[in-house]
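Please annotate the following for my students:
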Amino acid sequence: LEDLQDTFDFCYKVHYLPGEDRASDPQYAQQVQALQAKLQILDRQRREVLGQMQQLLGRSETLRDFVLQELGAWQERQQHACLGAPADTRLRPLETWFTELGQGLFQLLKLLQALEDLRQKVTYERDPLKAEIPLLERRLRELLTYLLQRAFVVEQQPSMPNASKRPLVLRTASKFSTRARLLVRLHDRNHRMEAKIHIDRDPPKIKGFRKFNILTSSSKTLLAGDSPQEGLVCDFQYLTLKEQKDSRSGKGSKGVSEGPLVVTEELHLITFTLAYAYCGLELELETSTLPFIIISNNNQLSSAWASILWINMLSRNPRDQQFFSTPPPAPWPQLAEVLSWQFESVAERGLSRDHLLMLAEKLFG
């Protein structure tokens, strides 16, 4: 396309002299005719390139839908793994697919920019590049933005080091860790990508809902490991939580935990934000952990863990912090499966039909 354009441009500048009346010159008429033929070929080629671009964008959208379907399945597996299910939660295949799709889309963006450079050099009436490039670029940027926003995931849910396979229950003043990963492994090494964490960024409007501060640093530079295989990870370790004291709760009052929810049903979220930049695209990406419960002593652990089981079993929206305002009942087959996972996570075998029948009789008579 570039060669065709250069040839046309050269011939146009050499042979076509606007403003001169050379209609009677047969050689000039031939040259103008040849120029028009070259312009038609150039126009046809431009339309073909745009058609291919639209086709590739359509295929990319289909690919994106498949990849997001796989991401949804992974998130479900991760949720089940938190409850002790034997689930594969490796991210390597997803990371490969997200990265390759991202690479393809950024490559298309570069090609569009190259087409725009060609249009700046040569344009004409009804030039298809003039109308189509802005539309294609907008569609492509929207596709990239959506892909990148979904590619930022929580790889490791908040958990304390000795949680005995029970993540999502944290204790004040005890250390815990959590990790997020960007599945599109593309970044500009000249741009420092900073990840930040916030607790309860948009807290639910529940009376007496406790507020916490994250002690230790709440921001980190997203690091690519020495090898690209290690991916783009922000790993927050040795974090601790401290409750904000309410100055209004005077002596003799129940304090800030007074409210409709007991401590072991109060759900908290950590949100990760990331300033991302690559190939001229700048975005703020955001992702959240699953809801977790904050306890102050080990006596509350069993009740808190029961709440974690309940929300992850039954909530259609796993980030609903008001779930326990009206918690739904659990059907026995679903609860039985989760109890079996619990046993399997610590005893390396699940519960048999007879075991579950015995438990059902204990629970329901």
Q: What stands out?
A: Residues 26-82 form the longest helix (57 residues).
